[in-house]
Specification:
mainly alpha; disordered C terminus; 0% strand
């Protein structure tokens, strides 16, 4: 009874949305890098269609990109409409309920969309590995890829079911005032730790997988390293996954807002009894790492298809710059004339001129 009376004496949450301290940077960042990743996927598909080399990995990346677009849209929507990053006294019950409904419940994000999206991206990467490395000479590579593909289905089903046992009834997930009474947040914590740990494990396997096949290729070491780096970028999401796992573990155990002034002011408000302290930084501690992780994977797995075009563009740019440099050196207005072998002044005399008789050749790196 005393607990209820003490809460009743606190300042109630606002009835209308207050955006005085609203943060737009996180939503803008998520949307921007989301657009960049989708552009890479579209460029990849365009390149494969143009070269008539569409494969299973390209078809698999289409649903992965669709899920990624859904994730990006949701991250932008939540950061703009769920009170994330705002001080306690500006968060309405409706805003916080929206955050619970889409994030803490996991009905859309943590129990379905995130693992499904992650698995779809990994399937695309595994199919690209199968396309390139499964030449029929090694059954080990084929079996490893098939096992990893099968485990993606187990991964999705498992982590779509586990959070369903967090609350005694479904509607308590997003009930701000009843959530703490009928839901086990520590069960949620450990289920998410398991989710992120398994995700990081899969991403690490994908990161290391190309090392042995690429090391056996008959090509110069420099080119082998270049090819390996391109493939490893596709699985470089393991770094973002490791960061997200670490920051989630630290933030889940933080009960006090980072800003001491906000903390003291927040104690006077009713929502301080229901909103966790770590809510003040969810934009940067959860949404940014969660957006970067699939972004790196999608961009990295698109690079092998774009490599010939990127190399061609690099050669064209290099030739263009060389042509312009040669034109400036041979232009009389610069103090040089064709066939000249010395500088015309001290201020311009730091480089030998390029003449028609100069024994200089330009070689493409890829040739």
């Amino acid at each position: 009874m005393s607990s209820n009376s003490s809460i009743a004496s606190l300042i109630p949450p606002p009835s209308e949305v207050i955006d005085t301290h609203k943060v737009y940077s996180v939503a803008n960042a998520c949307i921007t890098i989301g657009i960049v990743a989708v552009m890479f996927v579209l460029a990849r598909l365009t390149a494969r269609i143009h070269s008539r080399t569409l494969g299973p990995d390209d078809y698999a990346v289409i649903p992965a990109a669709a899920l990624y677009i859904g994730w990006t849209s949701l991250s932008g929507y939540i950061n703009l409409n769920a009170g994330v990053g705002k001080p306690l006294w500006e968060i309405t019950v409706a805003e916080y309920s929206l955050w619970y409904k889409f994030f803490r419940t996991g009905i859309v994000v943590t129990t379905w969309l995130y693992p499904t999206m992650s698995a779809a991206i990994r399937i695309s990467i595994l199919l690209s590995y199968r396309r390139i490395f499964d030449t029929g000479r090694s059954k080990v590579i084929r079996y490893v890829i098939l096992v990893l593909l099968g485990l993606q289905a187990v991964y999705v089903v498992t982590f779509a079911i586990l959070p369903g046992f967090m609350c005694q009834s479904l509607h308590y997930f997003w009930d701000v005032y009843q959530h703490l009474l009928y839901c086990n947040n520590w069960y949620y914590y450990w289920s998410q730790i398991a989710l992120y740990s398994v995700s990081m494990g899969f991403d690490t396997i994908l990161l290391l997988f190309p090392i042995i096949p690429v090391s056996k290729l008959k090509m110069p070491v420099k080119k082998r390293l270049g090819v390996l780096i391109i493939f490893m970028l596709g699985a470089g999401a393991s770094i973002a996954a490791a960061y997200k796992l670490a920051i989630f573990d630290l933030e889940m155990k933080r009960y006090v807002p980072t800003n001491s002034t906000s903390f003291l002011l927040g104690l006077q408000h009713e929502m301080s009894r229901f909103i966790p302290g770590q809510f003040d930084r969810y934009g940067t501690t959860f949404w940014i790492p969660s957006q970067v992780e699939p972004t790196v994977a999608l961009i990295g797995t698109s690079l092998p298809a774009l490599r010939p075009y990127l190399a061609s563009a690099s050669d064209h740019f290099s030739n263009l710059m060389t042509s312009r440099l040669s034109g400036r050196l041979s232009n009389p207005s610069t103090g040089w004339s064709r066939g000249s072998t010395r500088e015309t002044s001290e201020s311009q005399g730091r480089f030998l001129p390029i003449t028609n008789n100069s024994n200089i050749e330009l070689h493409s790196i890829d040739k």
